[in-house]
Specification:
Elements: E1 13-18, E2 30-38, E3 42-46, E4 52-56, E5 60-65, H1 71-76
Antiparallel strand pairs: 1-2, 1-5, 2-3, 3-4
Length: about 80
């Protein structure tokens, strides 16, 4: 991974999809939260309740980053 590739996305909401072999029966296929920090080994997200979750990159299949709101969303407050 490139150094600093996620730096501009700190404090943005992300959805982390887990690799298929990391998903067990009855468990969620993804985790959502605010990108809190990252390292070459994994991602740290802050969940809505304020707790921090560390997710190693070996368990990650996909990272979805919610785009910044456009002008219309900022003016109307819609999302």
């Amino acid at each position: 991974m490139d150094d600093g590739i996620l730096e501009e996305y700190l404090d943005r909401y992300v959805r982390i999809h887990f690799a298929p072999d990391m998903i067990g029966q009855g468990l969620s296929a993804y985790a959502e939260g605010k990108l809190y920090d990252y390292s070459p080994n994994g991602i740290l997200i802050e969940e809505r309740d304020g707790s921090l979750d560390y997710i190693p990159f070996s368990a990650v299949r996909l990272v979805q980053i919610k785009p910044k709101p456009g002008l219309w969303e900022r003016l109307t407050g819609s999302s």
